[in-house]
Amino acid sequence: MPDDWTELPMEHYSAWRAVLNGMAEAHELTRPAACPLCGTGTLHLAFGLWGPGTPRTVGGEPYLGAGRHWEWCDNCLAHDYSCNDLVPAWAGPSLIPPTVGTRDPSEVIPHLAAPGA
Ligand SMILES: [Zn+2]
After folding, report:
1. Of 4, 14, 84, 91, which residue has the fewest beta carbons closer than 10 angstroms?
2. 12 falls within a domain
3. Is residue 117 part of a domain?
4. What is the DSSP secondary structure assignment for residue 4, as one 8-state letter?
5. Is residue 1 in a domain?
6. Helices (H) and strands (E) in the chain — how many of each?
7. 30, 60, 65 from 88: Cα distances, Å
């Protein structure tokens, strides 16, 4: 498990957001060879609720409740994290449990590797 994660450099923020926002709009949790930093890595997106969830609809989109999300590249290990989000309903099948405590994806990835566990 890599542990040399790098917080997303600010100079790459706009390019990163453009791709990750597109993934969210397309309801994609992974997109191969899409990293704007290294050009070859697969970008990953993962969501987690803080608690049992409080479903609501905002702007016509269904959400499960308050939570957070992680974004990372599996090649250059750039990552970003937000702890003040609404979790979209489409992410429901692959939610990360509230016990995960890291900003970097190191504790997130094992949950993705064991779907349904
Ligand atoms: Zn990368």
Report:
1. 4
2. yes
3. no
4. -
5. no
6. 2, 6
7. 15, 11, 8
For residue 114, the CA-to-ligand 1 centroid distance in Å is 23
What's the CA-to-centroid distance between 102 and ligand 1, angstroms?
A: 19
Domain of residue 14: give its range: 6-112
Residue 3 CA to ligand 1 center (angstroms) comes to 15
What pTM did the predictor assign? 0.90
Q: C-alpha 60: how far from its chain's center?
A: 22
Q: 33 CA distance to ligand 1 centroid (A)?
A: 8
Amino acid in position 9: P
Q: ∠ at Cα 32 (27, 33), nearest 5°?
A: 130
Give the pLDDT of the chain (117 residues) as one tens digit per residue. 557 999 999 999 999 999 999 999 999 999 999 999 999 999 999 999 999 999 999 999 999 999 999 999 999 999 999 998 999 999 988 899 999 999 999 999 999 865 554
Total structural domains within the chain: 1
